[in-house]
Structure formats: structure tokens, C-alpha cells
Amino acid sequence: MTPRDADHYITGQGEYMPDFDSVNKAIQDVRPSLQADGGDIELIAVADDGKVTVKLTGACGSCPMAVMTLKQGVEAYLRKVLPGVTEVVQG
Predict the structure, then answer these.
(1) Residue 55 to residue 9: CA distance in whole angstroms
(2) Which residues form the domain of 76?
(3) What is the pLDDT of residue 1?
(4) How far is CA 9 from CA 24, 31, 33, 62, 87, in A?
(5) Which of 16, 23, 67, 73 is such that its CA lies 20 to 30 A from the CA of 59?
(6) Who has greater pLDDT, 51 or 1?
(7) What is the Cα–Cα distance from 1 to 54, expressed in whole angstroms?
(8) Tally of domains in the chain
(9) Which residues of 54-70 are buried (b: 16+ CB within 10 A; e: fewer)?
(10) What is the spatial distance between Cα 45 and Cα 14, in angstroms, rounded to a whole number?
(11) Which pLDDT score is estimated for 14?
(12) If DSSP states are collapsed to H, E and C, what string results for the chain?
């Protein structure tokens, strides 16, 4: 999958930053994997600095591997398809 250039906005410094809708669309791509394990993900916020806040729910909310899922799964994917994403955190 290639970056979704049309789903970014350009800051005054010429940087591409993802908006709430583009991040939410990308989250739909990872949602089936989480749901297959009894969990889910909810987008809470996208900050101007590219920090994305999500809430892992269901089995993912209480799983001891949730941090790994968040960083190595969700964050890695979002950073790949939306280069303006700088970090994904649990909110």
C-alpha cells in the first residue's frame, strides 16, 4: 500500500500531516486483525504534531501484549501509510 497523499493536509512548513479522517480510514485496515482476536480499536484524537491517540477495546484492552500490538502493529502500519504519523499511544 502506498501513502495516501490525498488524505493529508500540508502545514505552513510544507510538512504532510494526517487528519482525523485519514487516520480513521487507515485504522479500518487493521481493525479486522484485532477483531479476529476478540478486540477492537477506537480512534480518539490526532494531534497537530502527528501523535495519534487510540483506545484498544475488548480482548485487546486487557491483553498483556497490548503495548506490542499498539507499537509494532498499529503504529508501524499507520506510519507506513501516513508518513506524518509520529507516534500512536493508548488513551
Answers:
(1) 24
(2) 5-90
(3) 33
(4) 15, 24, 28, 35, 18
(5) 23
(6) 51
(7) 22
(8) 1
(9) bebeeebeebeeeeebb
(10) 22
(11) 53
(12) CCCCHHHEEECCCCCEEECHHHHHHHHHHHHHHHHHCCEEEEEEEECCCCEEEEEEEEHHHHCCCHHHHHHHHHHHHHHHHCCCCCEEEEC
pLDDT score of 62: 84
Residues contacting 64, CB < 8 A, separation 6+: none
Amino acid occupying residue 23: V
Total residues found in the chain within this entry: 91
User: What's the mean per-residue pLDDT of the chain?
Assistant: 85
